[in-house]
């Protein structure tokens, strides 16, 4: 009887070990197909063919598409790159008399944080279709580490108003450290302080990024600062 009990307990322990959550692993994918336009794509892809990895990869590719000025709705990155190149070729054919620089499309992602609860991916894209300058965009994508679903701001912050107050303090601190002696009056186009669209996790705290034109003119570029976890722990539902 004792032997049967021991075997039964061993089976329970073995089952509990094998059912432990295993974090998804990532691989870096590089698309280097030949194009007439200057095109590059280096992005993170979850390994495997599980529901979790497929959900993560779908959300990453869809988030990339949303940062681009494209009519494509599919998340197939190769199709996006091909469509951009074809648009460039059509432009060259239609306006052969115009001496324009080569169009550019560059996509890059990086996994900047991963825990048992959340994965944060930073997506950086750059598009140039002629004109004075290109279009830069950064997207911070927060994903549930167990389901792969996108976590909205209210999914990890329980008091938006209180968090906004702390964020404003750190925003002003970041300006005070700027050699150009900027003030908050240089931003937000005369409107009150507001949170950026992009907030994500890092090893030290939450990163907040305002994209170009989001709070100031193109000349200011990105506006980025970080709030240490110890300053906002009371506002976080994910620790």
Topology diagram in text:
Elements: H1 2-18, E1 26-31, E2 38-46, H2 51-66, H3 77-94, E3 104-114, E4 118-128, E5 135-144, H4 160-176, E6 198-201, E7 205-210, E8 223-228, H5 229-232
Parallel strand pairs: 2-3
Antiparallel strand pairs: 1-2, 3-4, 4-5, 6-7, 7-8
Key descriptive features of the protein:
239 residues, alpha+beta, 8 strands, flat
Overview of the molecule:
The chain has 239 residues and is of the alpha+beta class. It contains 5 helices and 8 strands. Strand 1 (26-31) and strand 2 form a beta hairpin. The chain is flat. The two termini are 45 Å apart. 21% of the residues are buried. The model is unreliable at 1-5 and 7-19 (pLDDT under 50).
Short description:
30% of the residues lie in helices and 26% in strands. The chain has five helices and eight strands. 21% of the residues are buried.
Q: pLDDT below 50 for ≥5 consecutive residues: which ranges?
A: 1-5, 7-19
Between the first and last Cα atoms, what is the distance in angstroms? 45 Å
Q: Please state the oligomeric state of the protein chains shown.
A: single chain
Query: What order do the strands of the largest sheet run in, or round the barrel if closed?
Result: 1-2-3-4-5
**How many strand elements?**
8
Using only C-alpha atoms, the radius of gyration works out to: 23 Å
From the spread of the alpha carbons, the general shape counts as: flat
Helix % is 25-40%
| Helix-strand makeup class | alpha+beta
**Mean pLDDT figure:** 87
Order of helices and strands: HEEHHEEEHEEEH
Strand fraction: 25-35%
Biggest sheet statistics: 5 strands, mixed
Give the number of helices: 5
